[in-house]
Specification:
The chain is an alpha+beta fold and about 375 residues long. The chain is built from ten helices and 18 strands. Strands 4-3-2-1-5-6 form a six-stranded mixed beta sheet, with helices on both faces. The chain has a three-stranded antiparallel beta sheet with strand order 7-8-11, covered by helices on one side. It has a three-stranded antiparallel beta sheet with strand order 14-17-18, with helices on one face. Helix 3 links the parallel strand 3 and strand 4.
């Protein structure tokens, strides 16, 4: 059963007339059409029985066809009211729409109001949970793409390590990484490539800047690539020159915490238990207050997707789930270490997709 058929079955089971998918990542998931429409309308409307259609900017119709969408494609020009075109096309299906499933986390208030104005008395149903449930378990084709994306992330860390020398700036290292990836066909990163050195690594979401890397620094890389529509996300922290005792101690506890969580991955374990596994290692070494974020997040078409791996999430892991494991310790003004892997849950354990060594690399 393909993804559109799964949605149609869901609509029939829940007695919902139609679903309107607007999140570009979810549009890609159900249609294979990857687009960044900016402020323009992009979406797929699915009905219980009638044929679905894709609506997109007029200029992108050839791209949508080439992506493999075989159904009707409705275009809209910049001079037209895209929501009115959506409404008219939906009416042409001969189905009265009194209930509509939408992604409430993505729908804008402006479009929400337009739907009410055009369709009249309409009941909105949240579609987010259903799409999350569909996307959270990857099939073998998706897993193979994610393996390839992870291998490119490994290569990026290797390039970053080789580019480090005394006096080079974080931005210059970042540039070396992204240039090397572009030569391998990578057009987009999963997010802004992060290179943080010295005490800057103690900021979990620090920004790459013009700081010059010096001997004695720990250097934190956090990066990922978009490959065939899927993302990777890796963090490694390396030493430029011999690290001091505090740096070694922090690195050791983070590495042990990360590995403990990886080793605990298997079907039936909860996200909360996995977070707690890593957190206890760090807390037992006295660094608990410096681990200030969740253990990880789902990974796939989006670099951050369902589920969130935190201490209150009792969701049980299933084979085919892919997510990050990324504990960190951040002592303000002193030292920051994070180690992150992309992992897939297997029938009886775990497959680690990112392979770059986790033992402390001294450059």
């Amino acid at each position: 059963m393909n993804k559109i058929e799964q949605l149609q079955t869901y609509l029939r089971e829940q007695s919902i007339d139609a679903a309107f998918i607007t999140n570009p990542d979810n549009v890609f998931y159900v249609s294979s059409f990857k687009s960044n429409p900016h402020e323009r309308l992009l979406g797929v409307m699915v009905f219980q029985e009638a044929a679905p259609f894709l609506i997109c900017p007029q200029m992108e119709i050839p791209d949508a066809k080439n992506a493999g969408w075989a159904g009707e494609i409705v275009g809209h020009a910049d001079t037209q009211n895209a929501m009115e075109i959506l409404h008219q096309t939906a009416l042409s299906r001969g189905t009265e729409i009194k209930s509509l499933a939408i992604e409430k986390s993505h729908m804008t208030v402006d479009r929400y109001d337009a739907l009410i104005s055009l369709f009249g008395a309409i009941q909105f149903v949240q579609l987010d949970d259903k799409v999350n449930a569909m996307r959270v378990v990857k099939d073998e084709a998706e897993l193979e793409i994610l393996r390839e994306a992870a291998a490119l992330a490994d290569y990026a860390i290797e390039v970053g390590c080789k580019s480090i020398k005394e006096g080079i700036t974080e931005i210059e290292v970042m540039t070396e990484i992204e240039l090397a990836l572009k030569k391998r066909g990578v057009t987009h990163m999963s997010f802004d490539t992060t290179v943080l050195s010295g005490s800057k690594a103690a900021s979990p979401h620090g920004k790459t800047g013009d700081r010059k890397i010096q001997k004695g620094d720990l250097v934190l890389f956090d990066l990922g690539v978009v490959h065939k529509g899927y993302c990777s996300d890796i963090t490694r922290t390396v030493a430029f020159g011999e690290p001091n005792e505090e740096q070694k101690a922090v690195y050791d506890v983070v590495m042990r915490a990360e590995q403990a969580a990886v080793d605990a991955v298997k079907p039936g374990v909860t996200a909360a238990a996995l977070d707690q596994t890593a957190r206890l290692v760090i807390e037992n070494e006295g660094y608990g207050e410096f681990f200030t974020h969740r253990l990880g997040h789902g990974l796939g078409i989006s670099v951050h997707e369902f589920p969130s791996l935190h201490g209150s999430n009792e969701l049980k892991l299933e084979a085919g789930m892919v997510f990050t494991i990324e504990p960190g310790v951040y002592v303000p003004g002193k030292v920051g270490v994070r180690i992150e892997d992309d992992v897939a849950v297997t029938a009886d354990g775990v497959e680690v997709l990112t392979k770059f060594p986790k033992t402390l690399q001294i450059l």
